[in-house]
Amino acid sequence: MKTKVKRITKYKALYQILNQYTEAFEGEALASVQAFSTLNDRLSSLVSNLTRPVNLVYQQRINNRESFVRELELAIKLGLTVGRKTGDADLEATALNYRTTMRGVSDYKLYEKAVHLKELLQPHIAILDELGNKTDLLQKLTEHIQEFSQALTTTGLTLNQRKSGRSEVNALLREGNLLLSREIDGLVEMRKADYIEMYNLYKSMRTRRRSQSKAGEKPGLSDISGMVSDAATGLPVPGAQITLVQQASVIDVDHDGFFVYEELHSGSYTVGCFAPGYQVPESVVVTLGSEDSVEINFELQAVNPLLN
User: Fold this and answer.
1) What is the pTM of this model?
2) Averaged pLDDT for residues 40-60
3) Which of 71, 127, 167, 298 is most solvent-facing, going by the fewest CB within 10 Å?
4) Any idea what the CATH number is for the domain that residue 297 is in?
5) Of the residues 171, 192, 212, which one is the last residue of a structural domain?
């Protein structure tokens, strides 16, 4: 996201230069500048949300998970007791299986286990009363299932909004690049004689980043972006690194587990991923055309410490 923020900051600076010389633009030229202003406003709105720490998004879910696991552990013990007392082999086997497999699973799997266990316990309400009003425990499990479900839904919606926001940022940055290169650059060039100061300021800001490119080489318009997450928890893996073989490049993902390679030219690219404590996934090969935007997401499996 840092790279995108730099580009957005540059767009703002370019617009501020243009805005100082509004008298230089009218008609279709003014419409182009206004379109660039609207694009900047939308980018600012999106970035203000995307730069908020992702841990705030997950915090409610993380807090609910701790209490949810405790409640599920009690329900599992109850399931073992009821299963043995009633001869319900399915209930007993399920409770035993959940007791040994609940650690290290995703939040969604935990939720599914809790719902299933509750369904298996429900027919034994009478036995639960005999065991000392254990219907209260079943009621608490039901309440925790509802709360955890809400936390999963809320987190999922927020993460989808962030993902959608990132996609829109990508699209707006490409749109802004085209607006500058195809319209505004020419408009400023045409006004060089009458507004030399504006021309110099604009040209200086516009070419500052391109100086790193090879002579005669135009910036690419394609990009590769994505997320790196833990396959079990769904949480981002902020320590992960992404490799782009063709450029001999390695970058770190940000706090959201997000990465992006921008200004890539047409061609084939091999994208790899690595994170300490996780198995190395297979590299992904993509072919970019002109103005492509490809998304690659890596879901990493934690290394089993028993095998090391």
Assistant:
1) 0.56
2) 77
3) 167
4) 2.60.40.1120
5) 212
- pLDDT for the residue numbered 53: 65
170: containing domain: 1-212
212, 235, 262 - which closes a domain: 212
H/E segment holding residue 111? helix 107-121
Question: Are residues 201 and 295 both part of a single domain?
Answer: no
pLDDT tier, 113 (very low <50, low <70, confident <90, very high otherwise): very high
Cβ 195 vs Cβ 24: under 8 Å: yes
Contact 208, 9 (CB under 8 A): no
Q: Same domain for 183 and 218?
A: no
Q: How far apart are CA 169 and CA 149, in angstroms?
A: 30
CB 226 within 8 A of CB 1: no
Question: Pick from 234, 222, 246, 223: which is nearest to 298 by CA?
Answer: 234
Dmax over Cα atoms in the chain, in whole Å?
94
Tokens of 125: 């309400």
Q: What is the pLDDT of residue 212?
A: 42
Residue with the two structure tokens 């992702």 = 54
Confidence tier at 307 by pLDDT (50, 70, 90) = very low
Q: Are residues 118 and 47 in the same domain?
A: yes
C-alpha dist (Å) from residue 4 to 33, 144, 170, 204: 21, 40, 8, 20
Shared domain check, 86 and 147:
yes
